[in-house]
């Protein structure tokens, strides 16, 4: 066996010596991460080559520039052990095909966020950074848990500093005695605590408090090295405030919205469309508008890109329909989220954490997508399949 391994390594070495490095990188960087991971088992030479930082970076660049987006789904039911699924739209425009793949179990942990091919996940005690393809993960230093806390966890990368950071905003609520048991008061939030961890550092840093409410479960948007969220100033208004957190300076600030977003039109959820900070806004007629900031930080650069009419996917059963209508009555279009724009300008929508729909803005048509083994309820995040290791140890 050792002779076979040495022969394979020698053949690999000879091939690598004959071919220019850019050709080797060009070939391997276009392969799916699953194929490259299987190739690592060939011999030590292939292992070293595929873990080379230059190949990892080149591969990620090609995966990020594919013809279609990719996502991670996670079942929202504990009975299914929070199973992860990978879905890739690379061949959707050219062949009408979508790749849907069940990923190996990592741990019984909950999906929080995705950045550069890495997932931020958590359980009741710990936060983890992991690559769902390589199954390499890092358990982060523990942050002291505060009683009765709610809040947000987000994960991001700054291109200039080359640092990954996790931010946790925790809100402490008052505890009250109800019916002989301790419960959380429904009154206003008492205090916020903001902590930041730079991946690789031994401990979290407390950077102060935050005068914004981030307790609603809304997705963030990472643009220009800044994390973005929507916040409501109080419970008496539907208006939202757009705030950002700079991953380099670790400062919060408000981001200007267009003047037209007044009392009858309000940003509801954020996303990144073609690299631009974007937002879904509802209107009195229940239509969902998508606004895009064409020049970051410039208020006047917000434009309404398109409008999505009312649609109810057929898959939603009676119980889902009741939930859907109740959500719309409380907050119009709260159950509809824009995921991304495909290369052919069609738009991916997600309804009620249950159904993925392709919307064609040119013809105003909707097409529901179904997949074998699709979980009944799920969380979905945009995710680039990669070999990213960020120099974390194999556990």
Automatic annotation (TrEMBL):
Record-linked Gene3D superfamilies: 1.20.1280.50
InterPro entries in the cross-refs: F-box-assoc_dom_typ3 (IPR013187), F-box-assoc_interact_dom (IPR017451), F-box-like_dom_sf (IPR036047), F-box_dom (IPR001810), Kelch-typ_b-propeller (IPR015915), SCF_F-box_component (IPR050796)
PROSITE patterns per record: FBOX
Transmembrane region(s)? none
* Residue ranges annotated for the F-box domain, each copy included: 13-63
Q: Where is the signal peptide?
A: none
Domain of life from the UniProt record: Eukaryota
Name of the protein described by the UniProt record: F-box domain-containing protein
List the source organism.
Answer: Gossypium raimondii
């Amino acid at each position: 066996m050792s002779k076979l391994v040495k022969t394979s390594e020698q053949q690999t070495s000879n091939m690598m010596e004959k071919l220019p490095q850019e050709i080797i990188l060009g070939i391997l960087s276009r392969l799916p991460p699953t194929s490259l991971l299987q190739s690592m088992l060939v011999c030590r030479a292939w292992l070293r080559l595929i873990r080379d930082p230059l190949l990892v970076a080149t591969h990620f660049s090609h995966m990020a520039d594919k013809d279609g987006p990719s996502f991670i789904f996670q079942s929202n039911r504990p009975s299914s052990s929070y199973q992860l699924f990978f879905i890739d739209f690379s061949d959707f425009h050219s062949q009408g095909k979508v790749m849907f793949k069940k990923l190996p179990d990592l741990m019984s942990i909950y999906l929080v966020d995705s950045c550069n091919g890495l997932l931020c996940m958590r359980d009741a005690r710990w936060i983890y950074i992991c690559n769902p393809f390589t199954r390499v993960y890092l358990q982060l230093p523990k942050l002291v848990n505060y009683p009765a806390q709610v809040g947000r966890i987000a994960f991001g990368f700054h291109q200039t500093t080359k640092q990954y950071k996790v931010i946790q905003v925790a809100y402490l609520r008052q505890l009250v005695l109800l019916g002989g048991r301790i419960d959380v008061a429904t009154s206003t939030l008492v205090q916020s605590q903001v902590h930041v961890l730079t991946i690789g550092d031994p401990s979290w840093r407390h950077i102060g408090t935050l005068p914004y409410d981030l307790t609603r479960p809304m997705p963030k948007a990472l643009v220009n090295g800044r994390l973005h969220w929507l916040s409501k100033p109080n419970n008496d208004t539907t208006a939202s405030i757009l705030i950002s957190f700079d991953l380099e300076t670790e400062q919060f600030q408000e981001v200007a919205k267009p003047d037209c977003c007044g009392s009858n039109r309000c940003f509801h959820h954020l996303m990144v469309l073609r690299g631009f900070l974007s937002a879904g806004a509802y209107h009195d007629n229940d239509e969902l508008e998508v606004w895009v900031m064409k020049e970051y930080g410039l208020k006047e650069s917000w434009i309404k890109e398109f409008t999505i009419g009312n649609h109810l996917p057929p898959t939603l059963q009676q119980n889902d329909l009741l939930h859907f209508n109740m959500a719309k009555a409380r907050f119009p279009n709260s159950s509809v989220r824009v995921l991304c724009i495909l290369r052919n300008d069609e738009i991916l929508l997600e309804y009620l954490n249950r159904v993925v729909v392709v919307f064609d803005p040119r013809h105003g048509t909707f097409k529901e997508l179904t997949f074998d083994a699709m979980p009944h309820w799920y969380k979905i995040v945009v995710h680039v399949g990669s070999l990213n290791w960020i120099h974390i140890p194999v556990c």
